């Protein structure tokens, strides 16, 4: 069972995934965990990181170029993810294909000009392009569930700033420090979730209750669906 956690930078994805992992392990369920981009393991992710920190010239200006680097990072482990799924693991992923769709649609929305009615983000051609590239061409598996960790751009931005101040290694990159991009990306995520892009979604309010409570509620759903798949 493959579950992808999505949300803007600072939304609380890592915190929720960590709590959920602990809850599922306490229930004696097999869990594997992957975070994207894999900056420490993937040359494609490393090139994207260098672009985001101004070290790759005008590469960052190419929306499709950046999306391709992130897609190739996932493609490197696509087979391993499918193997883990086939072996009965619950695979928890911090970001996956939808992040590419949301950020790409948000960046193109910024470039849109003219008097035409803006497209709903989930209907933007780049969203289908991302799906075709990642799923059809590169073989990334389709998640069984996508969880949107929903936090306002303002709250997420303050968390990202605080994280940066506490850890010099967590300096915000060009995407993370762009408040307008984060807001548009959040809107794109809501559009994808409403359209049930790639399959079922669950929206979890980042500020609703404690993280342990949210993790327990998610674990109930995941365990139920996991048990059904066993039979």
UniProtKB/TrEMBL annotation:
The lineage of its organism: Bacteria, Bacillati, Actinomycetota, Actinomycetes, Mycobacteriales. GO terms for molecular function: ATP binding; dTMP kinase activity. One of its GO terms (biological process) is dTDP biosynthetic process. Residues 158-175, 220-231 have a biased composition (Basic and acidic residues). Residues 5-106 form the Thymidylate kinase-like domain. InterPro entries: P-loop_NTPase, Thymidylate_kin-like_dom, Thymidylate_kin_CS, Thymidylate_kinase. GO terms for cellular component: cytosol. The keyword Methyltransferase does not apply. It is an enzyme of class 2 (transferase). The keyword Kinase applies. This is Thymidylate kinase.
């Amino acid at each position: 069972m493959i579950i992808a956690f999505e949300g803007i930078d600072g939304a609380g994805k890592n915190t929720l995934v960590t709590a959920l992992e602990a809850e599922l392990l306490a229930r004696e369920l097999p869990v594997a965990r992957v975070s994207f981009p894999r900056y420490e393991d993937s040359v494609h992710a490393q090139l994207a990181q260098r672009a985001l920190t101004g070290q790759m010239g005008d590469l960052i200006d190419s929306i499709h170029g950046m999306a391709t680097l992130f897609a190739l990072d996932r493609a490197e482990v696509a087979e391993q993810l499918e193997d883990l799924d086939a072996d009965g693991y619950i695979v928890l992923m911090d970001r996956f294909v939808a992040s590419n769709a949301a950020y790409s649609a948000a960046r193109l929305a910024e470039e849109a000009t003219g008097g035409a009615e803006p497209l709903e983000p989930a209907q933007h051609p780049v969203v289908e392009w991302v799906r075709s590239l990642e799923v059809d061409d590169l073989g990334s598996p389709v998640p069984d569930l996508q969880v949107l960790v929903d936090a306002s751009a303002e709250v997420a931005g303050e968390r990202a700033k605080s994280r940066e101040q506490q850890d010099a290694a967590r300096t915000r990159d060009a995407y993370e420090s762009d408040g307008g991009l984060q807001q548009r990306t959040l809107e794109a995520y809501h559009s994808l979730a409403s359209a049930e892009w790639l399959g079922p979604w669950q929206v979890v309010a980042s500020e609703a209750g404690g993280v342990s409570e949210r993790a327990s509620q998610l674990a109930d759903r995941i365990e139920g669906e996991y048990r059904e798949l066993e039979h």
